[in-house]
Specification:
The chain is of the alpha+beta class and 699 residues long. It is built from 21 helices and 31 strands. The chain has three domains: 54-233, Penicillin-binding protein 2a (Domain 2); 239-564, DD-peptidase/beta-lactamase superfamily (Beta-lactamase, 3-Layer(aba) Sandwich); 590-698, Trypsin Inhibitor V, Chain A, CATH 3.30.10. It starts with a helix and ends with a strand. It is found in: Membrane.
């Protein structure tokens, strides 16, 4: 066969194969287009059209007076369908719209937005995200009036895609208590614990996939979301602020590791403040709920002596507060360990009352040995009866479980009874300790602490949480009488006498527990103070824990008790119901008039009328007056406060002086001690310039 013929045959074969392949392609196209067309159109539609969840609005978290602690605010991303607007609307408005977008976002030129929108319209793109930056509701209202946008979604093509953000109006106040929840549904605090109520139920709507994103299709099949419920807490924002501020100052002053404060209403168990601050490189923040969780569960130390004394009095009612115990020279050997007291050389022979007031470890240990040495199980049984071995069933997730030893345990040693009696070899959370102290304040009724009062749907109460009694009578009335006397004695005569108040009675107990590191007790301490006030008619109970303070004075009386006092003072000042009532009428001593120099005309007039003291007034038009004593009466003289002039505040109370000077926009510095202003650094009547500072001296 010639070479020419061979090549011709090969070419024909290749041509035949190409023709067959082309026919196959044509057949496949026809088959897909006409025979399988409906099938592939259906698949295409299914992939292009899809249901997307529409997230429910999360409920609010409210304080006790319904101030918002956490809420969801709407933000928006701006998208645009440039194919919707009619040509005349689009062409007349595109230039102005591009300029407005450029000015508003400040990131691109007006030419950029002009080209972006026009190119999308020409190419038929039905979805363009104009900018990734989120805008708030006020910005949305402004944008809705812009050219093209003012035509709305259906005729103008503007799309405001809603995005919700969690917002806390009071910033970091009660941050850990309010808590958080992330996209994985993990979190902490109230946000996490009540997520099922707050989150609501998501809806869904039909969306279409288009170039650059997706677009909602309003076909009537949408399922509207069921928005979350609001929860009303028991927190008082004023007391919460004071608690956090006082705690922060104490932690910063002592360079401590962490601290917690809980303030609770005695009768109801409602928590009015819960502050938790932990040490970080940048200062102290609410990084963990030490009040409730496992990290705050520690050996309570001397605050636990209240439980030991309760067990003692219940076991033997004949034990009197005047019975004496010889605590010796401050060192006492128990088995192979030495127990010591805080005072060098010891307290010697002291009463049971003084054992508690002075927080004598040896005194408590000897009492335990005397009455429970042969009945150690009875001691633990009393603690269990008091509920100290059980959780409280608190409303927030993560409540720590108490750790309490039992004589049947393998790690119950010969020294365990005496160690437990002074707050060692066992662990409690601050909330569990407070609930026990609260029961003493509440005449033996132990109530469950609560932090959420109601779950609401708008103004309708869906669920309410009432005070729940855990133990109707934690101990006998005789025992309560002794315990209350001892707790008051701690503040009047004992380790916490530095926080004694003349205005109201405080009852409580200090605690200073050595910490364990690597299985051994070291010279680092967890300091505490737990108690209630006013002691004669308790309204609030409170516990303060400050962990690992540094410095010379690291006892509960030096570190934790002052925080308690600061919070108690504020709570007392805010709650007029706790104040002692004034007598309806006090018979004045006509021969000696009260020494008052200046103040509010209305206040002074009211007081003197109540006291039955004669007054004379030069004018009735002035808000502020000076007082001049006559023989048998007081005379009010005008003390006007003039605009842009330094007022005369000498003789006024600090409160009145701060009020007047603050209203004049003066920065005030206070020096000295006393009830009234003795001097002021800037003379009355002086012109007030910018950044004016005035110093007032009390005397």
């Amino acid at each position: 066969m010639s070479i020419k013929k061979s090549i011709l045959i090969r070419v024909r074969l290749v041509f035949l194969l190409v023709c067959l392949f082309a026919c196959a392609i044509v057949y496949k196209v026809v088959h897909i287009q006409f025979l399988d067309g409906d099938k592939w159109k259906s698949i295409s539609k299914e992939r292009r059209i899809f249901y997307k969840p529409v997230h429910a609005t999360r409920g609010n978290i409210l304080s006790d007076n319904e101030s918002i602690l956490a809420t969801s605010l709407p933000f928006y991303r701006v998208a645009f369908d440039p194919t919707v607007a009619k040509p005349e609307v689009f062409n007349s408005g595109i230039d102005s719209l591009a300029i407005l977008l450029s000015r508003f976002y400040g990131d691109k030129s007006s030419d950029y937005y002009h080209r972006k929108i026009k190119n999308a319209r020409h190419s038929g793109r039905r979805y363009v995200r104009l900018n990734s930056r989120q805008i708030d509701y006020q910005d949305k209202k402004v944008m809705s009036r812009w050219p093209i946008f003012r035509e709305g979604k259906n005729r103008g093509g503007v799309l405001f895609e809603k995005v919700e953000k969690r917002f806390k109006p009071f910033g970091i106040l009660a941050e850990r208590t309010i808590g958080f929840i992330n996209e994985d549904k993990n979190g902490a605090g109230l946000e996490y614990s009540f997520n099922a109520n707050l989150s609501g139920t998501d809806g869904e709507a039909l969306f279409e996939r288009i170039a650059g994103g997706s677009k909602p299709i309003h076909d009537g099949t949408e399922v509207n979301p069921q928005h979350g419920y609001d929860i009303k807490t028991t927190l008082d924002i004023n007391l919460q602020d004071v608690a956090e501020s006082a705690l922060y100052k104490a932690l910063e002053k002592t360079n401590a590791e962490y601290g917690t404060v809980i303030l609770m209403e005695v009768k109801t168990g409602e928590i009015k403040a819960m502050a938790n601050l932990g040490k970080t490189k940048g200062g102290y923040i609410e990084d963990y709920n030490y009040a409730v969780g496992n990290q705050g569960r520690t050996e309570p130390g001397s605050t636990f002596k209240l439980a030991s004394m309760m067990a003692l009095f219940e076991h033997n009612q004949e034990v009197s507060l005047t019975d004496t115990i010889d605590t010796g020279d401050g060192r006492y050997k128990i088995k192979n360990t030495i127990m010591t007291d805080a005072k060098i050389n010891g307290y010697g022979k002291i009463t049971v009352q003084e054992v508690f007031e002075k927080s004598s470890n040896i005194g408590v240990a000897k009492l335990m040995e005397q009455y429970f040495g042969s009945e150690q199980q009875a001691f633990v049984d009393y603690l269990n009866k008091f509920g100290l071995n059980s959780t409280l069933g608190f409303q927030m997730e993560g409540e720590a479980r108490p750790y309490m030893k039992d004589p049947q345990d393998r790690n119950w040693y010969g020294t365990t009874l005496t160690s437990m009696s002074i707050g060692y070899e066992m662990k409690l959370s601050p909330l569990q300790t407070l609930a026990f102290y609260n029961a003493v304040a509440n005449n033996g009724v132990k109530v469950q602490p609560i932090i959420v009062k109601e779950i609401r749907k708008v103004d309708e109460v869906v669920q309410s949480f009432e005070t729940r009694v855990l133990n109707e009578k934690i101990c006998s009335d005789e025992t309560l009488k002794k315990l209350k006397a001892m707790l008051e004695g701690v503040v009047t005569n004992g380790t916490a006498k530095s926080i004694h108040s003349e205005d109201y009675k405080i009852a409580g107990k200090t605690g200073t527990a050595r910490k364990v590191k690597d299985g051994r007790y070291v010279r680092e301490y967890s300091t505490s103070f737990a108690g209630y006030f006013p002691a004669d008619d308790p309204k609030y109970s409170c516990i303060v824990i400050i962990d690992s303070p540094k410095g010379v004075n690291v006892y509960g009386s030096d570190v934790a008790a002052p925080v308690f006092k600061e919070l108690a003072d504020k709570a007392y000042a805010l709650d007029l119901a706790m104040h002692k009532p004034m007598h309806a009428r006090v018979v004045p001593d006509k021969e000696s008039l009260p020494v008052v120099q200046a103040g509010s005309f209305d206040d002074l007039k009211l007081i003197y009328n109540k006291l039955g003291i004669s007054t004379r007034t030069e004018t009735a038009d002035e808000d502020w007056v000076k007082v001049e004593a006559k023989r048998r009466s007081l005379e009010f003289k005008p003390n006007p406060v003039l605009q842009s002039k330094v007022p005369d505040v000498t003789g006024m109370t600090l409160r009145d002086a701060l009020f007047i000077l603050g209203n004049q926009h003066l920065e005030v510095k206070v020096e000295g001690m006393g009830k009234r202003v003795k001097k002021q650094s800037v003379a009355p009547g002086t012109d007030i310039n910018e950044d004016k500072t005035i110093t007032i001296i009390l005397g």
